From TrEMBL:
This is DUF2339 domain-containing protein. The keyword Translocase does not apply. The chain crosses the membrane at residues 6-29, 153-173, 179-199, 211-230, 236-258, 265-282, 288-307, 312-329, 341-358, 370-390, 396-416, 428-445, 451-466, 478-496, 502-524, 531-550, 556-575, 587-607, 619-637, 649-667, 673-694, 714-733, 739-760, 772-792, 812-832, 839-858, 864-886. PANTHER family: BLL2549 PROTEIN. Coiled coil: none annotated. Residues 47-134 are annotated as: Disordered. It comes from Luteimonas terrae. Pfam families: DUF2339. InterPro entries: DUF2339_TM, UCP035905_mem. The lineage of its organism: Bacteria, Pseudomonadati, Pseudomonadota, Gammaproteobacteria, Lysobacterales.
């Protein structure tokens, strides 16, 4: 016993001594650093003063810098006549008028003025940097310094030293045999001395407040140590009596703290009170006695909260009560303890539900309306988590508990609303009421309590942190969102979902994640945190779309899944547009635009699932999409213009795409043949392109004139799609079965001619991106390719030439191309000559040259049959005809010479 007391005393004595020595050394180092800094500043100032030019009667010879601009020379009166020059070769300063002799200056050491002139001026003194915030070590050192330098320092150090000295004295007296008294008398003597010191401290509470409070705390600590030693070390008193004595001492310390307004003494009493059952434990495991004692302690904390608004005291009680209660529940809880555990849990919840109300009541009028988020939000959520552990098999009752908590907090919110003084507390209770009411739904269907509680608490903490402009609650809320995701993933991996669509915990939990993310986004947007608001919105949309997509895929058959996704996109885009109409935001408008864009691949999925997009439930899905899409476009008129125009741009491209898929499937089923299929695919695009070129105002609704900015891009996209289809259609044989193939008047040729006409119309408009010089060559090349394709199709349908890779080796096809190309060249020659168009004549000549090269390279191999011979004869006859009608190209028009001046 004596060795233990001596060791404790020496440890308590050594710590402050070492701290004092360390502080003394630190203060000495700081003083030396300050002296060195002062010396450095004085030396720097002296160097700067020497580098500056001195004003006086004597001249200073310096070399001017080459980069310095010449200064303006002031006008001075003519100088006085100089005295005769000295015979000495040294430079002499000019003499000035006699004046009063100045006092003699101290001797200045000679310096090299030429070298000084070249030496750069000293740099200006550094601007002191902004002071950095002290780190954790510096703040801890500052707290130790404050403890030793503020208040009644002597009594603080004296109590520590006295405690160690008394322990050492008792040890020495015991070793020397000076105290041959029973241990009970020794402890009684120490107790009497401690009581005397406690009485003395109480009597000095007014005149020497700091001294008295420190003395009272020390004496109560000594009494608690005496009780501990008498019970646990020497067995002089029973554990029950020791526990009762400790409780009396703790409550006495609490009473002294309240009477004197000393929070430190109250904190000491609460710590000692909560730790007393631990150090005086007998190992009986009687949780009723333990929590009964904690209930009395918490009642004392509530009583203190009625008189004093000591937040730290409330937090200590909260942490110890629920911390030790949770530890007991994890380690020692059994099913037989259910009733008593429920009773104590309800009692502790009621106690710490009342503490924030008492704390708010003690807040002075006009002070900032802050609340204790740890108690306001932590109490219901931790208590509910413990309740979930107690009712892990009875989720229905747990849902009723959540509903009851929601009703309780709704009533408190309504009651606090009347005064108007507790605005933040009232809003917090309203948020908790809504959260628990929402939480009751998934709990009634599945056990997702932890994830849902964390998600709701995280959203509440983010809102509270923004409301109070504090970072810690905001980051805590975001961390809770991450913890909720971990809990949700863990629960999803261990949950078997039943066949009930939508009404199960995983889906409802995901919806809670989405709603909490939207709540966080709205809170950040309200406080103008744009980046955080958009990240939270994207997080919410991820949960929203992911949950609906997975659930629809689970409960719907494969054919109906794309139709349901189309409705989901329509609803999502419409909701975002409605919100954008009230609070304009590019992200909301972008969501509506992307929802329309998503309909393009969904139309393809519908066609793969049930032949075309409008089959089965597709027709109803597209009707819903059309209605909500029009409403979304109307709502976007008041928002960001770029996304609104992009949405309407996508809207007008979407319908020709869906109709093309429909017509292709219908025509292929009814008629067959690739010609009809190609024509069916291009008909909606021909219609929308014709409207865009000829009746543009029809496409501007509902945006109106704002959509005129998309005129050129929309026409360009439509014409580019037509040109791409036109090029792909050149590879088709154009079989119009069951109709016979007739050149030019068959469906595919007519469709390709219509495309060329629309492209020509587009190129000849002023807003076309293609240049004026490229119009004629592009259209001429297109017409030439189409004539070539029609010729080859004729050889295939009328002459029986195969439509495959062997078509190029068919003599019929080659002869047909030779004749048709020659006719085209002859027409170019003749028309160019008759109309005086030299470019047309040269184009015809170039085409005839190409045909001649073809005869030499390709058709020469077919001279063994009639078709090859006919191609040569036809080319020769056509050239002869050209030689008669247009023997030479028309001359280029030459400008007449201008008349001479004065003629």
């Amino acid at each position: 016993m004596e060795e233990l007391i001596v060791l404790i005393g020496l440890a308590l004595l050594t710590v402050p001594v070492l701290l004092v020595v360390g502080l003394a050394m630190l203060f000495g180092l700081r003083r030396r650093v300050a002296e060195l800094e002062d010396m450095t500043e004085r030396l720097r100032a002296e160097v700067a003063s020497r580098a500056m030019p001195t004003s006086g009667a004597g001249p200073v010879w310096t070399r001017a810098s080459a980069s310095a601009p010449p200064a303006a020379t002031p006008v001075e009166p003519p100088p006085a006549p100089l005295p005769p020059q000295s015979t000495d070769d040294t430079l002499q300063p000019p003499t000035t008028a006699p004046a009063a002799a100045p006092p003699p200056l101290p001797p200045v050491p000679p310096r090299d003025t030429w070298r000084d002139a070249d030496r750069p001026a000293p740099p200006p003194p550094d601007t002191p940097a902004a002071p950095r915030r002290p780190d954790v070590f510096a703040r801890g050192l500052r707290l130790v310094k404050r403890w030793f330098t503020s208040g009644n320092v002597p009594v603080k150090i004296g109590m520590l030293v006295l405690f160690a000295g008394v322990a050492a004295l008792l040890k020495y007296a015991s070793d020397q045999g000076l105290l041959q008294v029973p241990i009970s008398l020794r402890l009684a003597g120490v107790s009497l001395a401690a009581v005397a010191g406690l009485v003395f401290g109480w009597r000095r509470r007014i005149s020497h407040r700091t001294f008295a409070l420190s003395l009272q705390g020390g004496m109560i600590g000594i009494l608690l140590l005496v009780v501990f030693a008498a019970s646990k070390m020497f067995g002089l008193i029973a554990p029950e009596f020791a526990f009762a004595a400790s409780v009396l001492l703790v409550f006495g310390a609490g009473a002294l703290a309240v009477l004197q307004g000393a929070m430190a003494l109250a904190v000491f009493a609460v710590l000692a009170g909560f730790l007393a059952p631990i150090w005086l434990s007998t190992g009986s495991g009687n949780h009723v006695a333990l929590f009964g004692y904690y209930a009395v302690l918490n009642a004392a904390i509530v009583t203190i909260a009625w008189f004093r608004a000591w937040r730290l005291l409330n937090l200590l009680g909260f942490v110890f009560t629920f911390g030790i209660g949770t530890l007991w529940g994890v380690l020692d809880y059994e099913a037989a303890d259910y009733r008593s555990a429920q009773a104590f849990l309800a009692l502790f919840f009621a106690i710490y539900l009342a503490v924030p109300l008492l704390h708010a009541r003690r807040r002075p009028v006009g002070k900032r309306d802050l609340i204790d988020g740890c108690l306001v939000f932590g109490t219901p959520l931790i208590a509910f988590s413990l309740q979930a552990g107690l009712m892990r098999e009875d989720t229905t009752t747990l849902a009723l508990v959540a509903l009851g908590l929601g009703a309780l907090y709704a009533g408190l919110s309504w009651w606090l609303r009347r005064g108007g003084r507790y605005e933040v507390l009232q809003q917090s209770y309203a948020l908790l009421a809504a959260g628990f009411a929402t939480l009751a739904v998934p709990l009634a269907l599945s056990a997702q309590a932890t994830a849902c509680v964390f998600a709701l608490e995280g959203a509440a903490l983010v809102w509270l942190g923004l409301r109070q402009q504090r970072r810690l609650p905001r980051w805590s809320g975001i961390a809770l969102q991450g913890a909720a995701v971990v809990a949700y993933v863990f629960a999803a991996g261990n949950t078997v979902v039943d066949d009930t669509p939508f009404a199960h915990g995983l889906f409802v939990g995901a919806m809670l994640f989405a709603l909490s993310g939207l709540a966080i986004a709205a809170a950040y947007a309200h406080w103008r945190a744009v980046v955080s608001a958009r990240l939270a919105y994207l997080w919410a949309m991820l949960w929203w779309l992911g949950a609906w997509t997975l659930e629809l895929q689970r409960v719907l058959p494969g054919a109906a899944f794309p139709d349901a996704l189309l409705v989901l996109m329509a609803v999502t885009g419409w909701l975002a547009a409605e919100r954008n109409r009230r609070v304009a935001d590019p992200l909301l408008a972008g969501t509506s635009c992307l929802a329309l864009v998503a309909a393009l691949p969904l139309a393809v999925l519908q066609a793969e699932a049930h032949q075309h997009p409008f089959a089965g439930y597709g027709i109803w899905a597209w009707l819903v999409f059309a209605a909500l899409g029009v409403r979304a476009l109307v709502c976007l008129r008041t928002g960001e213009g770029g996304f609104a125009r992009a949405a309407q741009f996508t809207w007008w491209l979407l319908w020709p795409f869906a109709l093309s898929l429909l017509l292709v499937q219908v025509v292929d089923r009814v008629v067959g043949g690739d010609a009809w299929t190609l024509v069916a695919a291009i008909l909606p695009w021909l219609a929308i392109t014709a409207i865009a070129l000829l009746r543009w105002p029809w496409l501007t609704h509902p945006l109106g004139r704002d959509f005129d900015a998309m005129r050129m891009p929309f026409r360009s996209v439509c014409c580019a799609l037509l040109a791409l289809w036109w090029l792909l259609a050149l590879r088709s044989a154009g079989d119009p079965a069951p109709l016979p193939w007739v050149a030019v008047v068959n469906p595919l040729d007519l469709a390709q001619i219509a495309v060329l006409m629309l492209l020509a119309r587009w190129m000849w408009r002023g807003d076309a991106p293609i240049g004026a010089r490229a119009r004629v060559p592009v259209l001429s090349a297109g017409a030439f390719l189409l004539v070539t394709a029609i010729t080859l199709r004729g050889a295939h349908h009328w002459g029986g030439a195969p439509w495959d890779a062997t078509l190029a080796s068919s003599s019929l096809a080659q002869t047909s191309l030779t004749i048709v190309w020659s006719v085209l060249g002859v027409l170019g020659w003749v028309l160019g000559s008759r109309r005086g168009q030299r470019v047309l004549w040269l184009a015809g000549a170039a085409l005839m040259g190409i045909v001649l090269a073809k005869l030499v390279i390709v058709d020469r191999g077919h001279l063994g049959n009639l078709w090859g011979i006919g191609s040569f004869i036809a080319y020769g006859l056509l050239c002869t005809v050209v030689g008669f009608f247009a023997p030479a190209p028309p001359r280029a028009a030459t400008p007449e010479p201008a008349p001479e001046a004065g003629a």
